[in-house]
């Protein structure tokens, strides 16, 4: 039988995409100057969170000097700062920051994952890389059988999730758009908290908080 522990082990040992393997390992060797004294993870990054999660947040991929460095998705980078502050304010996390896996962070009633598990060059996985990686997310979602809401961060994660769920026609992507699925779960859309969006004001903290406030309402309202 499958388990979250088995999925994690399979993710961490994966070498299915030569371009991504080469890039993640190169970044781990060369390192950013500000992290030159740290040992980088340099491997695929599994999902993490509460096994009884009612909410799952799905991003694009680990950041080269974030999750690829720390070994935990959305940990140690600026996008992650936004994600965990929002989860904390909505009551899904016990603290608003995440800098490394041993920092005491717990997500409660939620899980966090990515469509692609290796840091990609220029933050752009290819369609083939995405499709080779998505079975890991499918396995996680099958095991997280209490999930009622899936929040996708950005169009890439939205399109990946629509493909994974077999949604035809593909529902529209827009910030705060929500789509009720045939199985009773809700797919919610959010702009990605990338610096490109947060620095330009395309995504504000209030707009990001609105996503998780709504997710809290939906997870609390369905059994």
Percent helix, as a range, is 25-40%
Rounded Rg: 16 Å
Low-confidence stretches: none
Shape: globular
Query: What is the count of β-strands?
Result: 6
Q: Determine the strand fraction and express it as a percent band.
A: 5-15%
Q: Fill in the CATH topology.
A: Uracil-DNA Glycosylase, subunit E
* Overall number of structural domains: 1
Q: Write down the secondary-structure element order.
A: HHEEHHEHEHEEHH
Spatial sequence of strands, sheet with the most strands = 1-3-2-4-6-5
Given the helix and strand composition, which structural class is it?
alpha/beta
Question: What is the straight-line distance between the termini?
Answer: 26 Å
**SS summary, helix count:** 8
CATH-assigned homologous superfamily: Uracil-DNA glycosylase-like domain
What CATH architecture do you see? 3-Layer(aba) Sandwich
Task: Output the CATH class name.
Answer: Alpha Beta
Whole-number mean pLDDT: 97
Largest sheet: 6 strands, mixed
């Amino acid at each position: 039988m499958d388990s979250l522990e088995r999925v994690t082990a399979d993710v961490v040992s994966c070498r299915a995409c030569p371009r991504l393997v080469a890039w993640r390992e190169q970044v781990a060797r060369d390192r950013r100057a500000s992290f030159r004294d740290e040992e980088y993870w340099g491997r695929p990054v599994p999902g993490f969170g509460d096994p009884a999660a009612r909410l799952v947040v799905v991003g694009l991929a680990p950041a080269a000097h974030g999750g690829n460095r720390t070994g935990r998705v959305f940990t140690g980078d600026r996008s992650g700062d936004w994600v965990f502050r929002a989860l904390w304010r909505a009551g899904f996390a016990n603290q608003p920051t995440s800098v490394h896996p041993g920092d005491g962070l717990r997500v409660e009633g939620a899980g966090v994952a990515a469509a692609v598990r290796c840091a990609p060059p220029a933050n752009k996985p290819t369609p083939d890389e995405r499709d080779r990686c998505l079975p890991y997310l499918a396995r996680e979602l099958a095991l997280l059988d209490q999930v009622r809401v899936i929040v996708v961060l950005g169009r890439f994660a939205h399109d990946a999730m629509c493909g994974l769920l077999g949604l035809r026609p593909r529902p529209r992507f827009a910030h705060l758009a929500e789509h009720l699925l045939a199985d009773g779960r809700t797919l919610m859309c959010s702009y990605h908290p990338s610096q490109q969006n947060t620095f330009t004001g395309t995504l504000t903290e209030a707009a990001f908080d609105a996503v998780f406030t709504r997710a809290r309402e939906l997870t609390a309202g369905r059994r």
